[in-house]
Amino acid sequence: MTRYPPLPTDTSDGLLVIISGPSGVGKTTITRGVERAIRGSVFSVSATTRPMTAVDVEGVDYRFVSDDEFDRMVADEAFLEWADVFGKRYGTPRDWVVEQLARGRLVILEIDVEGARQVKAALPEALAIFIMPPSEDVLLERLRSRKREDESQILKRFAEAKHEIQVARSCGAYDVFIVNDELERAIDEAVNTVRDRRAGRRGPIA
Ligand code: 5GP
Hints:
This protein is of the alpha/beta class. The chain has helices at 27-37, 67-75, 94-102, 113-122, 136-145, 151-171, 183-202; strands spanning 15-20, 41-43, 46-48, 62-64, 79-85, 88-93, 106-110, 127-132, 176-179. It has a single domain, classed as Rossmann fold. β5 and β6 (88-93) form a beta hairpin. Residues 23, 46, 50, 81-83, 85, 90-92, 110-112, 114-115 line the site of guanosine-5'-monophosphate. Guanosine-5'-monophosphate (5GP) binds next to β5, β6 and α4.
């Protein structure tokens, strides 16, 4: 078995944190907020077959791979989980995550509900957080204000988002639901949830 030498920022309590939520809910900003606030936390860069957009940075947001490469990675069991999201595939790199956890890092996965279900089935200790919009009206408004898609695509995303929220509520994979009514408050709540979980694991302070 591979042994991973500790790094100066390592702690003894590795923790896997899953952050999910419908598109337009602000989960990427919240995820990056948690990563910044918690020392020694690392963001897992997924592989995806979706095309790179102008705002994406290769190796930072995703590893952009071809369909063939993704097939090979699936065959090699390179993924901790993978899922088809809006017709494109996304997967979490297994070895990298295992290595970071062995080093005691807090590893953050920003993945969809299907991926979260797979990870929680394999690792029930993972902390799964679902980010909710304050209301359906606000979500629709946020999707429109991004000006990324035309109205028919926006309505499709909106229907998908409502379905995703329903599945997240009923599937039992999520430990915590956080409403993104105000960004800074939602980030604080996510950070505190993660800190509480880590503190709880260490046991009561004498
Ligand atoms: P986007 O293409 O907008 O960046 O992401 C689309 C969806 O794919 C989001 O819900 C995001 O959380 C999800 N996603 C990103 N990476 C992964 C992954 O590795 N696994 C799974 N299951 N979902 C992912």
